[in-house]
Amino acid sequence: MPKSNFLTKRQLIDSRYQISRILQENELLRTYVALDTKLPGKPQCILKLLSPTSADLFLQGKQQLQREAETLASLGKHSQIPELMAYSTEEGLYYLVREYIAGISLAEKLIPGQKLGESTVVRILSYLLEVLEFIHSRGLVYRDLKPENIVRREEDGKLVLIDFQAIAPVINPGNSISLVAGSPAYLPSEQINGEAQYSSDIYAVGIIAIQALTGVHPDPRYGGGFPRSETGEIQWQDLAMVSNGLGAVLSRMVSYDWRDRYSNATEALNALLYGQNYDTANSSPSLSGTNSNLSPRARKWIMVSIFVLGIASTIVTILFIKWLIDLAD
Questions:
Q1: What is the pLDDT of residue 201?
Q2: Residues designated catalytic
Q3: What CA–CA distances, in Å, run from 27 to 8, 32, 55, 91, 204?
Q4: Residues near 318 by Cβ (< 8 Å), separated by ≥ 6?
Q5: Facing residues of 86 across strands?
Q6: In percent, how much of the chain has pLDDT > 90?
Q7: C-alpha span between 51 and 121 (Å, rounded)
Q8: What counts of helices (H) and strands (E) characterise the chain?
Q9: For the whole prediction, is pTM greater than 0.85?
Q10: pLDDT greater than 60 at residue 280
Q11: How confident is the model at residue 286 (pLDDT cuts 50, 70, 90)?
Q12: How far does CA 210 lie from the centroid of its chain?
């Protein structure tokens, strides 16, 4: 068991991290906002401390903390993933420290009964699929996408994932794992059966987008939930004002059968950016980093090129009309 389960405000961990306030706790861990007293300005950070409520839970909590630390370390730096700052198992004190993300959770933006516009929802989709593209390229499935685990960063408005306890390698179809992670309202059927795929994350993103468009929480316990057809498909389109293109993309994202969805974040992002008729049969997406679909940089250059060509076309049209007027005179 760890030496200290309860930390008080202003208490120091390892003579460095000063506790500011507690964020949340469960039977395994306590999560605090702390100050790094050895850095200029004493910036805020997140400190997760192993604090099992019983000796039986100690090993489970230790493994969970270690898995999260190893995952953050292996992912490295990404603008939408908090950076791992420290991890310690010395002298019976088990904790990790990660970057603090100033902002508000997406859950606070998705208010039941209030619908977000399509352009806002497309931005949400783009941000989430971009970070998932990075995670999927590492052979990992996030497994717990929900608004509470997503923060809209105050600095630049980007969406950042903040919890990595459930992330795990992709499971080959037919194989299952004993631990089913995630929140039920955002879980597809194969993940409930312990067979999380890349497309399981795509399903969760689609549910979040539909929640934003309809103003309906997907969990019946919160007065929401969506009806399903006899084949298990979610019936949501009549609850939102949405274009045919985006509606088709979302409906495919939340297909009941994981094989009918976009197979990974790259495929879904391309469909979102370039239209729902994106040719998946000829794209041959590779998650190893070779022979992959268009990279984020390539997508940006294409968008810039389209924008510049549009402006050039407008200028040429104006000059042509002016020439015709001058010719008539």
A1: 97
A2: 144
A3: 18, 15, 11, 21, 26
A4: none
A5: 97
A6: 60
A7: 38
A8: 9, 11
A9: no
A10: no
A11: very low
A12: 15
